[in-house]
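Sharing a chain and its predicted structure for anyone who wants a worked example. Both blocks are below, sequence first, tokens second.
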Amino acid sequence: MKLPKLLTIETLSRAYAAGSLSPLAVIEAVIERIEAWPDPAVWISRFDDDALRAAAEALMAKGPSPGQPLWGIPFAVKDNIDCAGLDTTAACPAFAYAPAADSTVVARLRAAGAIPVGKTNLDQFATGLNGTRSPYGAPRSVFHPDYVSGGSSSGSGVAVAAGLVAFSLGTDTAGSGRVPAAFNNIVGVKPTKGMLSTTGLVPACRSLDCITVFAATAGEGDLVRGIAAGLDPTDAYSRSAAPVLLPTAALRVGVPVGAEREFFEDGANAGLFQAAIDALEDLGCTIVEIDFAPFREAASLLYGGPWVAERLAAIEGFHQTNAADIDPTVRKIVEGAIGISAVEAFRGAYALEAFRQRTAAEWAKADILMLPTAPILPTVAAMQADPIGLNAKLGRYTNFVNLLDNCAIAVPAGLRNDGLPFGVTLVAPAFADAALAVWADRLHRITGAGIGLDTDANLARFAPPPGRMSSVFRWWWWAPISRACRSITN
């Protein structure tokens, strides 16, 4: 069987079930694709070819089991997440260390049968939304080498969109699990805070950090999220709760009132956002205009308030001894925390609660929000000329989400006339993750944007996400594939 342009969990699993592919054949193709991909900045490190082959052969020798819904699926790991056998660098060579064990999330995915391929590039210490702040290079959008890939999970977004792996792990504090999805035409799943353990993650802002999933579709992203999720007693911020439900029809979708729709004079993105609104109406949703100002003002606390002190707390010891080894822009941001007092921290906390009250009035009007994932897609040259100003523009619609404890899913929303992608993000209350995936999938299908570089991909051949089904039912959605896989031999 010839591999499709984009690797997906469903396509590979069905091929394994049919006996037309084996994990070893897929790994051989992955190795070839990585070597052929013209952007060397995607990866910081990866397992050598023989180690990848051995991992695939070990899976095939044992065969799939009912507890391995990701059997033989290759994935990538952002290089601020521990993956045993590869150094964790956080895109800072002087900071690198060899982890003694997998992070909790990587361990769960390996147990489900997935094969980690390597560690992907990122904005150093996960500080940035653009992907240019790394000594390992600046990964580019898969659609044009002049444009940024989005960050901080830059390499993870490119690896999926280019068809190098079937899914990848990123992280999200300010929007890093969503912006790379928009700039590479894929899905970015940002779970509820605490749903995925951050044990084994180099923190950016520990109280806000989320491990995220990049995937071809909302269904596949939600599948991986469900497998990776779960309480972890080693993570002080780990938590769980009953799933929050959303209406299955007549959904009320809040969008910014006209004056709050800022695209910085990019008319093409403004037009595609309006087209996404129209698509939701075609799906039977009720569009409600909301005042986005309190969300936007809350977002300003992330870099303009005391939360920047958390970024310094995360690397304080390293900063004291190795400040010169930190990217100049990242260092400038982190050092903005110096001198922030406990009084200012409490004032910031009070301000956030005031914004929470104000946003509650807007949430009363809507079940979910739909926002542009990013208002603009800058070139690498423009970003390097204005690294802080343009980055702030990229976070206009993303920075509030973790501060206000929401979940979010970024989905493709069409291509501009110049061939560049545009994406939107659906935002919902905490623990509505599974229900939100259903609506994200519906929107993705109707926009006709395809998946990554495969802009003609037919989403009709992909199963929809299980939505409100229980985790047990979610497994049985995939069980026929896994049961058929048992017949595969070497």
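Comments welcome. Residues 468-490 have pLDDT under 50 and may be disordered.
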